[in-house]
């Protein structure tokens, strides 16, 4: 192919006649002549077929003028040439060429009228140009006549007048230049006065004047100096803008914004402002923390100044932690307050400029002003979250820089208090939920609370093991709300606000923090000294409020001051509340009161010092939970462990009877039968009296498995802490040796049993009172745990009365003696005697003696009506059981049935 192309190149293009002569006879015969081509064009062709031929032409032929058609066709030749195929392909190309030629000819014929019309326009234009040339010739001739008609005097007069005007303008320009030379001093004075808008206005006017007279050589130097002055003003203006980030001043900020408006850099100013706020936050927190670190370090070492802020926070000592955190929040508050006041300034400024402009000439400037205001508004709104995010990250680094697990409770609560107030600031600042702060304080709180709760459980065990179960005297109107730890329950404030402080006025609670401290003050300036102010004294000299306390407990009811109105009347039936028809005398009433186990006394709460400490501890837990709700479930779970451990201790101390009574046999004349001396505890264990319900038994088993470390008493000292699970458990408590439960004179520690059991019931009542508060704090997913705790644990507290008081009722009366007496009775009598048997008298005397001893115990501690009912119920049940036992052993069947029926 290259050879053929080179051959064609050497021969060069020749005319069709020359080329036709070189061809073979066959090829020469196939080349159409001009006449044939003309006939071919004149022959009618189907337009559709013609269009198809044109469409079949390759696109490359229409690509560009520089396209080499020969090269393209030669490249398409196959390696082996076939004459017939080449001729067919050539004929196809000729048909395509003919179709294109015909199409071009048709287009030329189609555009022929337009060509004729355009030619006419060209002819008309030529005629007009000739006419214009004649007019110009005449005009020049007339101008020549006018020039010859003016005199030299009139033209000279006009020239002198023009020269005078030029000199007058020059004098004015010289005076302006003189004024410009003196503006440098005035600009310096205005910058010292911080009159930035005036300085910029003056500088811009000078620049405008200088540009007018720039053709003077003395102005070029002045113009350069003014440009330098303007740049200096912008630098000072940027410094002035940065000052508003810490201490916002309306007048100062107004001047700065006016200055930026004159410069046309309102958007740039806003970008710079956000950069300054970010820098102000970093510099502020760094300087505050650095000051405390250097103060605590006690030396002038400069290594702290080169540290990163995060590393610097790890050098804060526990003593300076809270003061530094307070100052840190104060400084950040000032920055956020400045940003808030900046937004307020722009909102007021936008309202003033929102008046529509009527002048059409200022439409463009008005649109630009609206665009600037919109940009500033969006930038400020977007900056809220950015500023608060920076604040959160700085405070988070400070919080996590110190291990607070060993802080005192009041100190840690104060930290939570400060962070809670800071989160409230963030919510009012930009509506943020402060996830970063919540997560960081949650980490510290969980870490702290685990150690704190572990220590409190150990302290509770120590209190229980040293508790002598005596009544802690409190006033009759005692309520846990009176305790300092529960003061926050009576405050109608948001849970996110500090629980230890209350707003001074009701209207103050309706205002946001930014409105309260708009003109001064700081929400973090809290007084932490008066923690116990206005805390009511809940302790009484002895738990009763009689005026004759010094005369002894037995004389409490000699005065009618504390007797209810219904008791000042005749005796009221405790069960029905009805008044008997026959009245009793006052002496009878007094004796009735003294012998009735103080059942009619004022219901002073029965609780111990340990109970009061547990209640205060619950209040502290709720304070922590009230401030930081994300750990609410952990706190409530720990609160439930406090109650579980208290309940388990009371049951362990007083609900079990481990005394073993040896068995003996009683011989009965005429019968080879022995009576096993069975202790009531055996009846309880074997006969299933239902003293412990399945729910209570399940609760005790759960507490023992999840909370009690049973291996602590048996393991060696070196094996403590080998299991992670045991770290969450507490050893079982032991009853104090000062508490004696085996003495019959004290009814086997009835006073201690009453105090322990009723203090547990009182504690359960306080948990019932707090249920609604705990329910609001508990996460929705964890509420079943709280419901289960109340239904299976709190409600079982009163059920401990049965097993605890059953031991007293079983041991205080000698039921065995009744069995012996019943064994000695002759049951084969012929007639019924009018006098009952001896064992009945003995039983009645036992009851009288028990009643007397109950009265003695009631002088030491008030015996509530439910306790009295349980005691007598146990006594009656045990007596009935003894009678049934004796009748089944010693009576013939008919008499036994008769006795059982009666």
What is the element layout, followed by pairings?
Blueprint: H1 2-11, H2 16-22, H3 25-30, H4 34-42, H5 47-55, H6 69-76, H7 83-110, H8 112-149, H9 152-192, H10 196-212, H11 217-243, H12 250-263, H13 266-297, H14 309-313, H15 318-352, H16 363-400, H17 409-430, H18 435-466, H19 506-510, H20 513-516, H21 565-568, H22 586-595, H23 609-627, H24 632-655, H25 680-687, H26 694-706, E1 708-709, E2 730-731, H27 750-769, H28 771-777, H29 783-792, H30 801-812, H31 815-823, H32 838-858, H33 865-890, H34 893-901
Parallel strand pairs: 1-2
Pfam families: Syndetin_C, Vps54_N
Domain Vacuolar protein sorting-associated protein 54 N-terminal: 54-345
Region (Disordered): 1-28
Distance between the termini: 140 Å
Record the strand order, biggest sheet.
1-2
Work out the radius of gyration.
Answer: 55 Å
Q: Give the integer mean of the pLDDT values.
A: 74
Biggest sheet layout: 2 strands, parallel
The number of helical segments is 34
Report the β-strand fraction as a percent range: under 5%
Give me the count of strands.
2
- Gross morphology: elongated
Helix content: 55-70%
Given helix and strand content, the structural type is mainly alpha
Q: Uncertain runs with pLDDT below 50, 5 residues or more?
A: 1-5, 7-31, 492-509, 527-535, 541-601, 659-688, 716-722, 893-902
């Amino acid at each position: 192919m290259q050879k053929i192309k080179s051959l064609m190149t050497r021969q060069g293009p020749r005319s069709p006649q020359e080329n036709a002569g070189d061809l073979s006879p066959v090829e020469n015969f196939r080349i159409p002549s001009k006449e044939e081509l003309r006939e071919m064009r004149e022959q009618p062709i189907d337009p559709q077929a013609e269009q198809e031929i044109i469409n079949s032409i390759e696109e490359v032929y229409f690509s560009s003028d520089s396209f080499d058609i020969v090269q393209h066709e030669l490249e398409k030749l196959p390696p082996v040439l076939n004459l017939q195929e080449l001729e067919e392909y050539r004929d196809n190309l000729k048909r395509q060429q003919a179709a294109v030629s015909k199409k071009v000819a048709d287009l030329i014929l189609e555009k022929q009228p337009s060509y004729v019309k355009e030619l006419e326009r060209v002819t008309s234009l030529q005629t007009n140009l000739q006419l214009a040339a004649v007019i110009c010739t005449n005009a020049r001739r007339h101008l020549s006549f006018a020039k010859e008609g003016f005199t030299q005097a009139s033209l000279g007069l006009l020239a002198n007048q023009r020269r005078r005007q030029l000199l007058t303008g020059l004098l004015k320009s010289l005076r302006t230049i003189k004024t410009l030379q003196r503006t440098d001093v005035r600009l310096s004075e205005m910058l010292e006065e911080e009159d930035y808008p005036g300085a910029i206005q003056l500088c811009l006017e000078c620049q405008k004047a200088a540009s007018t007279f720039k053709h003077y050589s003395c102005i070029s130097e002045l113009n350069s100096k003014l440009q330098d002055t303007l740049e200096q003003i912008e630098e000072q203006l940027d410094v002035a803008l940065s000052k508003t980030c810490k201490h916002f001043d309306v007048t100062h900020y107004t001047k700065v914004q006016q200055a930026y408006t004159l410069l046309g850099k309102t958007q740039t100013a806003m970008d710079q402002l956000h950069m300054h706020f970010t820098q102000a936050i970093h510099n502020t927190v760094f300087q505050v923390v650095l000051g405390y670190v250097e103060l605590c370090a006690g030396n002038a070492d400069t290594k702290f100044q080169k540290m990163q802020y995060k590393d610097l926070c790890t050098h804060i000592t526990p003593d300076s932690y809270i003061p530094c955190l307070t100052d840190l929040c104060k400084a950040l508050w000032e920055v956020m307050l400045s940003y808030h006041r900046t937004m307020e300034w722009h909102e007021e400024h936008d309202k003033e400029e929102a008046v529509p402009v009527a002048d059409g000439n200022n439409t463009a400037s008005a649109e630009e002003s609206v665009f600037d205001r919109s940009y500033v508004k969006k930038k400020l709104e977007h900056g809220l979250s950015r500023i608060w995010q920076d604040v959160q990250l700085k405070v988070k680094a400070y919080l996590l820089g110190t291990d607070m697990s060993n802080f005192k409770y009041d100190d840690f609560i104060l930290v939570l208090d400060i962070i809670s107030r800071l989160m409230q600031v963030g919510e009012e600042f930009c509506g943020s939920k402060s996830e970063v702060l919540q997560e960081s304080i949650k980490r510290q709180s969980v870490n702290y609370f685990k150690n704190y709760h572990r220590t409190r459980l150990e302290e509770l065990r120590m209190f229980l093991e040293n508790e002598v179960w005596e009544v802690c005297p409190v006033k009759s109107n005692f309520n846990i709300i009176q305790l300092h730890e529960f003061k926050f329950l009576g405050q109608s404030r948001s849970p996110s606000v500090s629980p230890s402080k209350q707003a001074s006025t009701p209207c103050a609670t309706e205002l946001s923090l930014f409105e309260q401290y708009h003109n001064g003050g700081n929400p973090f300036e809290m007084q932490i000294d008066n923690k116990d102010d206005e805390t009511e004294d809940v302790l009484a000299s002895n738990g009763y409020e009689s005026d004759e306390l010094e005369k002894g407990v037995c004389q409490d009811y000699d005065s009618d001051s504390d007797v209810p109105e219904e008791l000042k009347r005749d005796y009221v039936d405790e069960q029905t509340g009805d008044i008997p028809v026959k009245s009793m005398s006052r002496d009878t009433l007094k004796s009735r009161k003294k012998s009735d186990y103080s059942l009619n006394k004022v219901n002073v709460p029965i609780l111990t010092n340990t109970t009061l400490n547990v209640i205060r501890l619950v209040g502290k837990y709720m304070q922590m939970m009230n401030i930081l709700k994300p750990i609410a479930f952990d706190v409530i779970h720990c609160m439930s462990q406090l109650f579980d451990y208290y309940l388990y201790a009371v049951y362990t101390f007083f609900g079990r009877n481990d005394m073993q009574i040896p068995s003996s046999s009683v011989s009965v004349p005429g019968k080879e039968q022995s009576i096993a001396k069975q202790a009531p505890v055996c009846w309880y264990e074997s006969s299933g009296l239902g003293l412990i319900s399945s729910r209570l038994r399940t609760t005790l088993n759960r507490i023992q498995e999840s909370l009690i470390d049973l291996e602590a008493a048996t393991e060696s000292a070196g094996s403590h802490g080998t299991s992670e699970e045991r770290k969450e458990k507490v050893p079982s408590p032991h009853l104090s040796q000062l508490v004696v439960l085996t003495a019959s004179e004290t009814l086997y520690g009835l006073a201690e049993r009453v105090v322990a059991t009723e203090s547990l019931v009182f504690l359960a009542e306080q948990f019932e009172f707090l249920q609604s508060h705990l329910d609001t704090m508990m996460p929705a997913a964890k509420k079943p745990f709280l419901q289960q705790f109340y239904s299976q644990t709190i409600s079982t507290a009163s059920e401990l009365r049965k097993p605890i008081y059953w031991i007293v009722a079983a041991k205080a009366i000698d039921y065995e003696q009744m069995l012996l007496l019943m064994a000695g009775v002759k049951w084969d009598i012929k007639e019924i005697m009018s006098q009952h048997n001896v064992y009945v008298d003995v039983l009645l005397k036992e009851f009288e003696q028990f009643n007397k001893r109950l009265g003695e115990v009631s002088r030491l501690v008030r015996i509530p009506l439910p306790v009295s009912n349980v005691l007598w119920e146990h006594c009656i049940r045990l007596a009935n059981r003894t009678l049934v036992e004796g009748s089944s052993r010693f009576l013939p069947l008919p008499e036994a049935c008769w006795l059982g029926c009666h």
